[in-house]
Design brief:
Layout: H1 14-17, H2 23-28, H3 36-51, E1 62-63, H4 67-77, E2 110-116, E3 135-136, H5 142-151, H6 155-158, H7 174-180, E4 184-189, E5 203-204, H8 234-237, E6 240-242, H9 246-266, E7 275-280, E8 289-291, H10 292-295, H11 317-325, H12 335-365, E9 372-378, H13 397-400, E10 401-402, E11 405-407, E12 415-416, H14 426-434, H15 450-453, E13 461-466, E14 475-480, E15 483-488, E16 491-497, H16 520-539, H17 542-563, H18 592-599
Parallel strand pairs: 1-12, 2-7, 2-9, 4-5, 4-7, 6-8
Antiparallel strand pairs: 1-11, 3-10, 9-11, 13-14, 14-15, 15-16
Helix pairs in contact: 9-12
The chain binds calcium ion.
């Protein structure tokens, strides 16, 4: 296998493909400059072709790309997408919105949901397998995006306005639905909750990396003022290697706790429940700094410079504000500075790859790999200098498009889906996969991606809402087919056709006021624009939303100003209060041999031979 078997893949993948027996090596052991997922996909597709089977022992990933690419792939490989399969475990929700009570069986699949932070799909160059489209976000900012992801409900409905917005604890999350279905729901890593730090997770393994309070609220009453915690240019100016960073401290703890959770799971008794563990890493988020070994993986690589450069005076209104909010308006970064920032970012992506590899390897060694669904996604991307912008908060592709992958080889063939799907869709999809349904009596904006996973026709629309820093009024997006429409009461509207204009250079909203004659494409754009305008008007009451956002901001400012005075009672999660504490390791009140026996996996008999039987005659064991 090698170059050219899959249309659009330009790299020779044979050096990597040899190591696919151990999936981790795909991710871990090769220096793949910013191309890891791209290569991964190439290899999986190629192997699918080579083996002509959908039941190989490596993970299959389903990724949302354009349908016609999928069709091309299918033709090339001589087999069709799989027939519609029954939901895993069977749907036994009763259909009236109440999921059945705890009824998980040992056969029910575990779920490992891995998240990265600020991982931009376009920056991974998955776009080299054109045409490609990946998961989009309900809101391109950390906390609101995550709150919508866990609830399946759009940000304005749940009040997830900015990075200091508290959503009510009575919103059901995927953790609630899966827990009701009998799952042990656990969170390791970041979720950026404000207030309630659990929201349905039964076990939280680490604290959050971000504050769980109102400190990062946006202030539309004083939009010109840059707040102390906003992004600034330092990330780019100071990009490079480090021995340690805040983020490395955090992710290494997340990884240790996650792996320990898996080890603890396999040593539970026969009545153990299936798990749904979310492992949420903070890399490759800025600041752009990473250990030397990851930096060195990109030695000699010509780091790509941003494709689109726009003079700042010609930027759209929101982009201009973002340049000021992120304090880069007066900066003129050199090519060298940009390359260093991107190199460190790519290094951090490789770090994430290594972490994924470690988790998959642990699953395998714990013999959990055959019965664990793996989901991979993120909260938003990073502009990384494209259009002169950095970080997120924008609806341009590098900020709003994230990877979204599902792997469950027992049920789904590898293929790529082209429709627009959202991280909002993860909750109803997980529900389908474990045989339950979200309540039909409650708001749900997400739609199940089961049809996409099964190779059938699925939905193709993503709605996104933004009221965080940088904007001064609600900024909304509708993405459907090739079209991306952006509207905001204080800014000029935008319309792009990403099929014809993947770099988003031609604002087709301008044709609405252009005189005759129009080309056929302009006529089409004019018609689309009018429809999107009507749809937005019907969907959003901008005045009411603006008042809701202002009310929330003002309430939080008053409360936060008071809470900062005197003794500070933090809402930040303290894992120590939830840990097993003194009951772990060797203690005087625990029979020593019992402890050692229970802690060893796999179980062995008195001569050290592996056995699945309960050991009752081992020296020192007490009473079993
Ligand atoms: Ca984030």
């Amino acid at each position: 296998m090698g170059m050219g078997e899959i249309s659009g893949v330009k790299r020779d993948i044979s050096p990597f493909a040899r190591k696919t027996e151990q999936y981790k090596y795909l991710l871990c052991s090769q220096p793949l400059p910013g191309l890891v997922l791209d290569d991964l996909l190439s290899i999986l597709f190629t192997l699918g072709h080579t083996r002509g089977t959908a039941t190989g022992n490596f993970p299959y990933w389903v990724i949302s790309l354009r349908l016609r690419y999928c069709a091309f792939y299918t033709t090339n490989n001589g087999h069709r997408p799989p027939p519609a399969a029954a939901p895993i475990g069977g749907v036994n929700g009763n259909g009236n919105g109440n999921s059945s009570p705890a009824s998980a069986t040992p056969e029910q699949p575990n779920i490992l949901f891995i998240m990265a932070d600020q991982l931009a799909a376009p920056q991974l160059k998955i776009r080299s397998i054109r045409p490609v489209r990946l998961g989009l976000l309900p809101l391109p900012l950390c906390a609101p995006s995550r709150m919508s992801l866990i609830t399946g409900v759009l940000p304005m409905k749940i009040g997830a306005y900015d990075n200091a917005s508290q959503i009510s604890s009575d919103w059901p999350t995927y953790a609630h639905y899966l827990r009701s279905k009998g799952y042990h729901t656990a969170l390791a890593g970041k979720m950026h909750f404000i207030g309630d730090q659990l929201h349905g997770y039964e076990t939280r393994l680490t604290s959050d990396i971000y504050p769980g309070d109102f400190g990062w609220a946006v202030n539309w009453d004083d939009p010109e003022r840059r707040l102390e915690w906003y992004h600034n240019a330092s990330s780019i100016l100071q990009a490079g290697t480090c021995v340690r960073s805040n983020q490395l401290d955090y992710d290494e703890e997340v990884m240790y706790k996650s792996k320990q959770f898996l080890y603890d799971h396999i040593r539970e008794g026969p009545d153990k429940r299936p798990f749904c563990m979310t492992v949420s890493l903070t890399h490759p988020h800025d600041p752009y700094t990473i250990e030397e070994k990851y930096w060195d993986r990109y030695e000699g690589v010509d780091i790509d410079l941003p494709k689109v450069k726009i003079p700042k005076e010609q930027q759209d209104a929101h982009s201009k504000r973002l340049m000021k909010v992120t304090d880069i308006w007066d900066e003129d970064f050199t090519d060298e500075q940009i390359k260093r920032a991107k190199r460190a970012y790519y290094g951090a992506v490789s770090f994430v790859d290594d972490c994924i590899g470690e988790l998959l390897d642990t699953l395998k060694r714990c013999r959990l790999d055959k019965n664990t669904i793996i989901v991979f996604s993120g909260d938003h991307g990073d502009m990384l200098g494209e259009r002169g912008l950095w970080y997120k908060m924008s609806y341009f592709e590098s900020s709003v498009r994230v990877p979204l992958l599902f792997s469950y080889p027992q049920k789904f063939q590898p293929h790529r889906v082209t429709q627009n799907v959202s991280t909002l869709d993860i909750l109803p999809t997980l529900c389908d996969l474990v045989g339950t349904k979200p309540s039909v009596h409650l708001p749900m904006d997400g739609l199940s991606m089961l049809p996409h996973l099964e190779g059938r026709e699925g939905h193709d629309t993503v709605i996104s809402e933004y009221t965080g820093e940088g904007t001064i009024s609600p900024l909304m997006m509708i993405r459907r087919g090739p079209w991306k429409y952006i509207t905001c009461p204080t800014d000029a509207p935008q319309l792009f056709n990403l099929e014809r204009d993947p770099l988003e250079l031609v604002n087709l909203a301008n044709v609405a006021c252009k005189g005759e004659p129009l080309t056929a494409e302009e006529e089409e754009a004019k018609l689309k624009f009018a429809k999107f305008e009507a749809e937005a008007k019907a969907r959003w009451n901008f005045d009411a939303i603006t008042q809701d956002v202002l009310l929330s901001q003002r309430k939080r400012r008053v409360v936060w100003d008071a809470l900062k005075i005197g003794r500070f009672d933090s809402w930040d999660f303290d894992p120590a209060t939830h840990a097993e504490g003194t009951a772990k390791y060797i203690r005087s009140f625990l029979p020593l041999d019992d402890l050692e026996r229970k802690a060893r996996y796999p179980t062995v008999d008195k001569y050290g031979h592996e056995t699945s039987r309960l050991i009752v005659d081992q020296a020192g064991s007490h009473g079993e």
